[in-house]
Amino acid sequence: MMNRASSFLWNLRQFSTFVPTSRTMRLYPLGFSRPRIVFSYNSNLRNLLLSDFGNRVQSSIRYVFQDALIFKSRDDFQTKGVSIETVLTVSRVLCPRRLSFDSKHSLFSDEGLKINFHHEASNENVLTKETKPTPVNYRKLSQECSSLSDVLDTFSEASTFPSSNYISAMWTIAKRMSDDQKRIEKQLMFNHPAFSQLCEQVMREAKIMHCDHLLFSLHAIVKLGIPQNSLLVQTLLRVVQERINECDEKCLSVLSTVLEAMEPCKNVDVLRAGVRILADQQVWKIERVFTLQAVMKCVGKDAPIALKRKLEMKALRELDRFSDLNSQHMFEALAVMNHRSITLLNECSKMVIGNIHGCPFKVLINILQSCRDLRYRNLDLFKGIADYVATTIDIWKLKQVLFLLILLEDLGFRHTDLMDLFMKKVIDDPASLNMKSIISILHVYSSLNHFYKCQTQEFQEAMARSLTGYLHHISSENLLKAVSSFCLMNHFPLALIDQLLQKDIINELLTSGDIERNVHKLRILAACLKLDTSCPKAVDLALPPLPSIPLSPNGKVADALSSLLGEGFFLRNVQLPHNYHIDFEVRMDINRSRVLPFSHMDAVTSAADIQSLFLVRLFHCDLPCTVTHLP
Question: Of all residues in the chain, what percent carry a pLDDT higher than 90?
């Protein structure tokens, strides 16, 4: 009797673990349904008490299906066969990760009552079966919809998780549109009633969607032109900050691309700092070269020099895996990072030269712009690009070739064949050029001092006739630029010179704009008019006098010379004939083996044994100084 009583009490204690201690559940406002009562006629208290209590089944079971999050609490101890089942359903996944279960694993079994973990409830004993919407695929959606409004209409009819698919589909559709159509569609998108609902849903789901979906949403939102200071963009930036440690290589690439396209702000700056930390930690684990280049652009010129060198070393290690696109884009990546790696640039230049045929014109422009920003001069690269454009000049527009010539002029490179071909094109069709293009052409050809042996005069006259048609629209500074370029090419168009030498135009040039540059060009004009005997317009312009004291030399250069040579081994502000000034002068022996102090110059017997080295500032050059050797 005692054994039966103790066994009954033990079974009763084990049974008490199945009884829920509280029926109070906190429901968040996410569309959960209320508890419902489901009648089941298979409950049996005796079988329940005699079942295997070794399986410690919890009172609350949480599991995730593809479209529903269910919390289930069963009270099978009721003798009337009524079970209370709380089913909480939502139309989207509330957790970015799913719990994996064996499809054959059974939670509880009681004479035919069997609950299996399936993604679709196929058991006939489950009486509460609801139809959930199928998650939409953004690729399929972008194919079915032809406009951004169509995607929003689909979202308003039946929204599914994740909402990032709708944003990605909208950006995919927008990429196929022209600029005018894209502008109209964006305006319709902002005015659509479902657009604000989509933005709100994206913000609600930001913390629970997958990290790659979050970043693709941010990328699409930025590309769609949603203002950066909007609540949507700033909310996503804050959530990305919280989840930045979840980024894998793919997410890091997307995040770097997004930040590189955004304007600086507090949240963007914080994320850039986070990307720099991740790049410093994971640089050796990056497998794709495009990801490496995206990170290089994202870290920017303000990144620590140690990180820049680490990224450079990683790129050098991956040189064997570089594709043609990788080598072409590396110039821009280094320019954005403001890191000049001569070895890397030389290797990429060889790859660009060897595979230049078929290279897009925009890529060629980016390469030359990057070389200019990095102050990288590779004559073989410049010649290879110019040769390719010269051989394919018929497929390019005149404006494209002119832009290329402007960049080559900035780099100080003159390609005679390309400039001759371009000159012929201009002579054949001068009407296709506008005023700005004509002024740029004159600047390039006068700066590089290029003359075509048989068509120079015809070219100059064609340019003068085209520019004369803009006399009533051209500004004073542009007119001065054009006339000074003509004078440097030894051509003097009288109509343009007469217009420029009017008193009101001269006074405007001397009182407004870049006065120093205007005065410099006016001096060039006056000198050319005086020296040319064929021009009757030799007039004296009332220009400001030249400064009697030259500009002070660069202080950093003076400090460097003092530390390297010491005081007494160089002179400052050297005056030369014809009102020329030299910033610094250093004297060496004829073999350039040692520097001679100026106090010992009397001991030198012959001037032929002395070689002077002048450091001169050039105003038309971005470099602070240049070095000239004079015997």
Answer: 48
The tokens describing 358, both together, are 């078929």
Interstrand relation of 580-589 and 626-630 (parallel, antiparallel or unpaired): unpaired
How distant, in Å, are the alpha carbons of 10, 125, 127, 128, 358 from that of 79?
20, 19, 20, 22, 82
Q: Are 69 and 95 in contact (CB under 8 A)?
A: yes
Q: What 3-state class would DSSP assign to 546?
A: coil
Model confidence, pTM: 0.68
Extract the tokens encoding 94. Answer: 């509330």
- Write out the two tokens for 28: 């968040």
Q: What percent of the chain has pLDDT over 70?
A: 70
**Phi-psi label, residue 78: left if phi above 0, alpha if psi -120 to 50, beta otherwise:** beta
Q: For residue 288, what are its two tokens?
A: 């794709």
Query: Per-residue confidence at 239, pLDDT binned at 50, 70, 90?
Result: very high
374-387 tens-digit pLDDT: 999 999 999 999 99
**CA 269 to chain CA mean position, Å:** 14
Q: Which two tokens stand for residue 544?
A: 């400001």
Label residue 543 by pLDDT band (50, 70, 90).
confident
* 69/607: higher pLDDT: 607
User: Would you state the pLDDT for residue 577?
Assistant: 66
Whole-angstrom distance, CA of residue 20 vs CA of residue 274: 46
**Cβ distance 615 to 606 under 8 Å?**
no
**Rounded-to-integer distance, Cα 136 and Cα 162, Å:** 8
Integer Cα distance of 180 and 475 in angstroms: 32
**Gap between the Cα atoms of 56 and 92, Å rounded:** 30
Q: 572 pLDDT exceeds 50?
A: yes
Question: Residue 453: is its pLDDT beyond 60?
Answer: yes
Query: 9 — phi, psi (to 5°)?
Result: -65, -35
Contacts of 84 (CB under 8 A, 6+ apart): 35, 37, 38, 73, 74, 75
Residue 619 has pLDDT above 60, yes or no: no
Residue 602 DSSP code: G
In 3D space, the residue among 290, 291, 208, 219 whose CA is nearest the CA of residue 248 turns out to be: 291
Q: What is the largest CA-CA distance in the chain?
A: 139
Angle between helices 289-299 and 305-317 (to 10 degrees): 160
Residue 62: is its pLDDT beyond 50? no
Query: Would you mind telling me the total number of residues written for the chain in this entry?
Result: 631
Joined tokens for residue 284: 């050796």
Distance between CA atoms of residues 102 and 226, nearest Å: 44
Whether 101 contacts 61, CB under 8 Å: no
Per-residue pLDDT, averaged over 297-312, amounts to: 94
Burial letters 126-159, b for 16+ CB under 10 A, else e: eeeeeeeeeebebeebbeebebbbbbbebbeeeb
Which of helix, strand or coil describes residue 504?
helix
Give the dihedral of Cα atoms 283, 288, 290, 294; nearest 10 deg: -30
- Omega of the bond prior to 162 within 30 degrees of 0, cis? yes
What's the average model confidence in pLDDT over 581-595?
78
Question: What is the reported pLDDT for 568?
Answer: 80
pLDDT of residue 222: 94
**Contact present, 340 and 374 (Cβ < 8 Å):** yes
Containing 510, the helix (H) or strand (E) segment is: helix 503-511
Rounded Cα–Cα distance for residues 380 and 609 (Å): 37
| Region of residue 394 (phi > 0: left; psi between -120 and 50: alpha; otherwise: beta) | alpha
Would you place residue 588 in the very low, low, confident or very high pLDDT band (cuts 50, 70, 90)? confident
